[in-house]
């Protein structure tokens, strides 16, 4: 690992982490260089850098993962050091070795340390030798399917299958029974090969209600090593973190010291240098077990910065220049509490499918929400007008807050989430609000299956509220009215009559019940009153005088019986997505029931792609009889697999795509014939 002073830093990454690293680099007086793919030619990290160099086409393997192209970009721009961010090349030992040969400083650990922790099985053995407690499991080199199955049977279900070279939740499955093992193993191997070009697996006993607690460690090249306390990252979905906080709730001083010292032992065992995170599973009895070490800066590092007052990227850069750690262990102090919420372009109502599109607005109004700028931080890789691509991880930004204690920090988080204005792309913001406001989360009843255990309440239909349905109906009525006005009145079939009130009837309901014949929608009747923006609504036996005022972007002001509310609304096909502060997001399926019924469709005989992506595998043969819910095809998008299942009993008549093909959102994937 090269160690030298440098005045130009190349950031070999994209999105929010590239922007965040460059922010500190500029503050230290360093010149910054960005790299980009064709999909990111006008991305925010490119716009903010002093220089930017194209690496190649959109696919990461042809751009951000091309070691030679990244090194050549550093040579062309005179960059003496490369910061890898996280993901991509951040834990790639051969990349670090290539930088050493080129005389370029890597802002991170030596290749030997990456290799020691990159092989999860070998890492477990070294940690055991260093006295770091381990979860029972199999970490051997023999990867025969039958042997792995026998080891899982011996450990006892449930077990956790993990890619030996993995991270970020990829190549990972919880296996509940012996009958599920082979299918889970096949899926893990596919994901692991695609993400890491390595399909070796390890098996661990799956603890049913553990907490995920990790310790931030830092080491320099002079033998100095400290831990900067811990973070609780228990709230996850698909093994990926959603909400993180520091310090961990309920942590005692003795347990903090014990875990911190174990983490430092782990780092020293492999000759670590730089920022690293040692991840533990913490059981209810206070026992903890080593999971893995991330040999890079973590996504959630800002919560540690908030409670310690330290800039961890600055520490990284100074250590990479050969300096000693800025502070010793007894000089580090912990102050207050911090949360981080990860904002993703994804649809929680559609099993968290990744979303793409253009951000028509992306802003955080702190002043309007009465929040102090030093208590709220938004680490973002996007701005209004930016395009969200299908090619990369769907995380848009991280919202980080600080408070004197956990309750105060949580209250600030809820207000900041409500103040975050994101329009044009479906996001998980409403879901984050439900998580942060959940009584069990407030009560610190945390474990890694939190979302799974509280699925019923987190995904429950929103309670019926006259004002919410009235507001949604008013937006739908306005849209229909504008469509009608764009056509000749003689071509209209919507109930419009000369010299008569303009009346439209709508049915609104939960999207999950849109095709449920027994679901009872809410019927709203709207009649034009006077000017174009005024309506009289009848809903649930109640009549309201309503007015709609269009504001910037997707924002509107709805006035019901003299009560004016500002909200954001987005029409997505036959759904209305309405964000009302502070209640959060309401999603309603809508259709006309007075003349033209836009919601009625015959049963479709095709299955369409729910997002842009790549076909990974076809799981049945054309003509094969299948049952409802049976897996038919596997797609991959934004580094995660998605399985499409049969909508009914029947058979697949033909596939339109083969494994390896790229498909666009809405493309017809196959022809399906349902049983009569």
Automatic annotation (TrEMBL):
<keyword id="KW-0436">Ligase</keyword>
<feature type="domain" description="ATP-grasp">
    <location>
        <begin position="124"/>
        <end position="321"/>
    </location>
</feature>
<dbReference type="Pfam" id="PF21139">
    <property type="entry name" value="BT_MCC_alpha"/>
</dbReference>
<feature type="domain" description="Lipoyl-binding">
    <location>
        <begin position="600"/>
        <end position="673"/>
    </location>
</feature>
<dbReference type="Pfam" id="PF02786">
    <property type="entry name" value="CPSase_L_D2"/>
</dbReference>
<keyword id="KW-0067">ATP-binding</keyword>
<dbReference type="InterPro" id="IPR011054">
    <property type="entry name" value="Rudment_hybrid_motif"/>
</dbReference>
<dbReference type="Pfam" id="PF00289">
    <property type="entry name" value="Biotin_carb_N"/>
</dbReference>
<dbReference type="InterPro" id="IPR016185">
    <property type="entry name" value="PreATP-grasp_dom_sf"/>
</dbReference>
<dbReference type="Pfam" id="PF00364">
    <property type="entry name" value="Biotin_lipoyl"/>
</dbReference>
<dbReference type="InterPro" id="IPR005482">
    <property type="entry name" value="Biotin_COase_C"/>
</dbReference>
<dbReference type="InterPro" id="IPR011764">
    <property type="entry name" value="Biotin_carboxylation_dom"/>
</dbReference>
<protein>
    <recommendedName>
        <fullName>Biotin carboxylase</fullName>
    </recommendedName>
</protein>
<comment type="pathway">
    <text>Lipid metabolism; malonyl-CoA biosynthesis; malonyl-CoA from acetyl-CoA: step 1/1.</text>
</comment>
<keyword id="KW-0547">Nucleotide-binding</keyword>
<dbReference type="InterPro" id="IPR048429">
    <property type="entry name" value="MCC_alpha_BT"/>
</dbReference>
<keyword id="KW-0809">Transit peptide</keyword>
<dbReference type="GO" id="GO:0004075">
    <property type="term" value="F:biotin carboxylase activity"/>
</dbReference>
<dbReference type="GO" id="GO:0005524">
    <property type="term" value="F:ATP binding"/>
</dbReference>
<dbReference type="InterPro" id="IPR005481">
    <property type="entry name" value="BC-like_N"/>
</dbReference>
<comment type="subunit">
    <text>Acetyl-CoA carboxylase is a heterohexamer of biotin carboxyl carrier protein, biotin carboxylase and the two subunits of carboxyl transferase in a 2:2 complex.</text>
</comment>
<dbReference type="InterPro" id="IPR050856">
    <property type="entry name" value="Biotin_carboxylase_complex"/>
</dbReference>
<feature type="domain" description="Biotin carboxylation">
    <location>
        <begin position="5"/>
        <end position="456"/>
    </location>
</feature>
<dbReference type="InterPro" id="IPR011053">
    <property type="entry name" value="Single_hybrid_motif"/>
</dbReference>
<dbReference type="Pfam" id="PF02785">
    <property type="entry name" value="Biotin_carb_C"/>
</dbReference>
<comment type="function">
    <text>This protein is a component of the acetyl coenzyme A carboxylase complex; first, biotin carboxylase catalyzes the carboxylation of the carrier protein and then the transcarboxylase transfers the carboxyl group to form malonyl-CoA.</text>
</comment>
<dbReference type="InterPro" id="IPR000089">
    <property type="entry name" value="Biotin_lipoyl"/>
</dbReference>
<keyword id="KW-0092">Biotin</keyword>
<dbReference type="GO" id="GO:0046872">
    <property type="term" value="F:metal ion binding"/>
</dbReference>
<dbReference type="InterPro" id="IPR011761">
    <property type="entry name" value="ATP-grasp"/>
</dbReference>
<dbReference type="InterPro" id="IPR005479">
    <property type="entry name" value="CPAse_ATP-bd"/>
</dbReference>
């Amino acid at each position: 690992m090269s160690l030298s002073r440098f005045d130009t830093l190349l950031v070999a990454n994209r999105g929010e982490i590239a922007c965040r690293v460059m922010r500190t680099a500029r503050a230290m007086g360093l010149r910054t260089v960005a790299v980009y793919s064709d999909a990111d030619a006008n991305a925010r990290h490119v716009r903010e850098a002093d220089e930017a160099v194209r690496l190649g086409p959109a696919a990461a393997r042809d751009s951000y993962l091309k070691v030679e192209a990244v090194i050549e970009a550093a040579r062309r721009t005179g960059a003496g050091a490369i910061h890898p961010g996280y993901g991509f090349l951040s834990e790639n030992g051969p990349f670090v070795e290539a930088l050493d040969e080129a005389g370029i400083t890597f802002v991170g650990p030596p290749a030997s340390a990456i290799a020691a922790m990159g092989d999860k099985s070998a890492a477990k053995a070294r940690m055991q030798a260093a006295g770091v407690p381990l979860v029972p499991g199999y970490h051997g080199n023999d990867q025969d399917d039958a042997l792995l199955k026998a080891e899982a049977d011996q450990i006892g279900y449930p077990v956790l299958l993990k890619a030996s070279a993995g991270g970020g939740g990829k190549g990972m499955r919880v296996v509940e029974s012996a009958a599920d093992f082979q299918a889970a193993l096949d899926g893990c191997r596919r994901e692991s090969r695609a993400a890491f070009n390595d399909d070796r697996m390890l098996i661990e006993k799956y603890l049913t209600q553990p907490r995920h607690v990790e310790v931030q460690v830092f080491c320099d090249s002079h033998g100095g090593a400290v831990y900067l306390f811990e973070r609780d990252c228990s709230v996850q979905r698909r093994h990926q973190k959603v909400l993180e906080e520091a310090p961990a709730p309920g942590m005692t001083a003795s347990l903090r010291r014990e875990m911190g010292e174990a983490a430092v032992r782990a780092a020293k065992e492999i000759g670590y240098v730089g920022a690293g995170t040692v991840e533990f599973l913490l059981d209810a009895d206070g026992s903890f077990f080593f999971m893995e070490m991330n040999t890079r800066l973590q996504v959630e590092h800002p919560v540690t910065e908030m409670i310690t007052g330290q800039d961890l990227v600055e520490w990284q850069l100074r250590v990479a220049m050969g300096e000693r750690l800025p502070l010793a262990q007894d000089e580090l102090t912990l102050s207050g509490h911090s949360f981080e919420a990860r904002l993703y372009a994804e649809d929680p109502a559609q099993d968290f499918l990744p979303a793409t599109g253009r951000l028509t607005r992306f802003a955080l109004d702190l002043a309007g929400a009465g929040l102090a700028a030093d208590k709220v931080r938004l680490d973002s890789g996007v701005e209004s007008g930016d395009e969200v691509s299908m090619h990369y991880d769907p995380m848009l930004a991280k919202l980080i807050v600080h408070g004197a204690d956990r309750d105060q920090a949580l209250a600030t988080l809820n207000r900041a989430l409500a103040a975050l204005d994101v329009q044009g792309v479906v996001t998980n913001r409403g879901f984050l609000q439900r998580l942060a406001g959940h009584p069990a989360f407030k009560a610190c009843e945390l474990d890694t299956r939190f979302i799974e255990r509280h699925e019923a309440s987190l995904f429950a239909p929103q309670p019926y509220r006259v004002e919410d349905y009235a507001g949604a109906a008013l937006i739908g009525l306005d849209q229909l009215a504008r469509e009608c006005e764009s056509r000749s009145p003689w071509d209209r079939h919507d109930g419009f009559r000369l010299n008569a009130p303009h009346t439209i009837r709508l049915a609104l309901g939960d999207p999950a019940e849109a095709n449920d014949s027994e679901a009872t929608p809410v019927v709203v009747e709207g009649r034009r009153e006077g000017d174009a923006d005024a309506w009289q609504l009848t809903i649930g036996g109640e009549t309201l005088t309503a007015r709609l005022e269009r504001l910037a972007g997707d924002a509107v002001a709805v006035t019901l019986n003299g009560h004016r509310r500002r909200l954001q609304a987005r029409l997505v096909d036959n759904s209305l997505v309405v964000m009302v502060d502070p209640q959060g997001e309401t999603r309603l399926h809508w259709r006309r029931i007075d003349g033209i019924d836009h919601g009625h469709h015959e049963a479709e005989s095709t299955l369409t792609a729910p997002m842009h992506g790549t076909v990974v595998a076809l799981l049945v043969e054309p003509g094969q009889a299948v049952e409802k819910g049976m897996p038919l095809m596997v797609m991959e998008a934004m580094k995660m697999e998605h399985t499409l299942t049969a909508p009914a009993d029947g058979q697949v008549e033909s596939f339109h795509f083969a494994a390896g093909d790229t498909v666009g959102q809405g493309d017809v994937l196959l022809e399906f014939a349902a049983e009569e």
